[in-house]
Amino acid sequence: MSQSRNPGSSGYDGFIMQSLPRSGTSFILDYTNGTGAFGHAEEYLNQNVIAFSDATTADEHFEMAMNQAFGTANLFSMKIFPRQLVECVDHHGYDFIQRCTSEYSVQFVRLRRKDTIARAVSFYKALQDKRWATDRGGETIEIPYDFKKIYRAWISLIKAEAFWDTYNSMHQIEPIEFTYEELESEPSKFMHEMCSIFNVEPNGVKLLRKLKKQRDERSAEFCERFRRELSLDEFRDQFVDNRNQTVELRKAPRTWSNLFRLLAQKPLKVRL
To answer: What is the value of pTM for the model shown?
Structure first.
């Protein structure tokens, strides 16, 4: 079993942020990363961040991720998206969060984005130009408006949000909740809240990435057009199956099988 690295007086060893793509996680976490007190939060279950192979054992996988999350600090931090947790179970045969809570005292944080359409438009655009952050590559290309692809992104992210609701209910996890909208104009608020919870005094904050918002006039145009077209019957009828599945989630039993099916966009198993 891993050992705590001299946790703060709060008793916590670190925090895990549960969120979704395009919800402002990198922008917000740049502030806690900048304190140097919380390790360095990243997507450590993402194959693009740490190169895991299917041959990597569960113990090796867990230790590699946690070593990165701690860095040289006494407290760790990381963020996890639903698909990454599911892929951990699929490829390495264990639930990372449950393993982590069995070995460390974890504070959970949930970051939501209330404007789900803006989130979907941002996700769609990032899938096209690969610009997942302003400091990370990608191409400068003209991205066309595409209702169907934005809709699929919108539904996919709504389902992923439901994954966290269901998962936390299954495991009796009660995270501290924030919204991107409340932190957008004052991102340091999250950093101060974490420092308060962990009884940490930040010795200055050095922003490591200095990220900028990617939303622009084009994004606003896409959002306005999507909201307008979403209300039209001719578009609604094309996607009624997806909407029915979202409603169906409320009646589905909360099992790992249904969590996998949710993210795979397959029909859920419902008890009649």
So the answer is: 0.80
Q: How far apart are CA 104 and CA 214, in angstroms?
A: 35
3-state secondary structure 142-194: CCCCCHHHHHHHHHHHHHHHHHHHHHHHHCCCCCEEEEHHHHHCCCHHHHHHH
Contact between 75 and 198 (Cβ < 8 Å): yes
Tokens standing for 248? Answer: 């169906």
d(CA 243, CA 233): 13
Residue 220 CB neighbour total at 10 angstroms: 12
C-beta contacts of 20-23 below 8 A and 24+ residues apart: 20/81, 20/82, 20/113, 20/119, 20/157, 20/160, 20/161, 21/81, 21/123, 21/126, 21/132, 21/157, 22/113, 22/119, 22/120, 22/122, 22/123, 22/126, 22/157, 23/111, 23/112, 23/113, 23/119, 23/180
Name the strands in the sheet holding 76-80, side by side, starting at the edge strand that comes first in the sequence: 76-80, 14-18, 106-112, 176-179
Buried b (16+ CB within 10 A) or exposed e, 46-81: beeebebeeeeebeebbeebbebbbbebbbbbbbbb
Alpha carbon 69 to its chain centroid, in Å, reads 15
Q: How many DSSP H helices and E strands does the chain contain?
A: 12, 4
Are 120 and 146 in contact by the 8 Å Cβ rule? The answer is no
Residues of the chain with pLDDT under 70: 1-10, 132-139, 203-215, 233-272
pLDDT digit string, tens, across residues 146-184: 999 999 999 999 999 999 999 999 999 999 999 999 998
Half-sphere exposure of 144 (CA within 13 A, CB side): 4
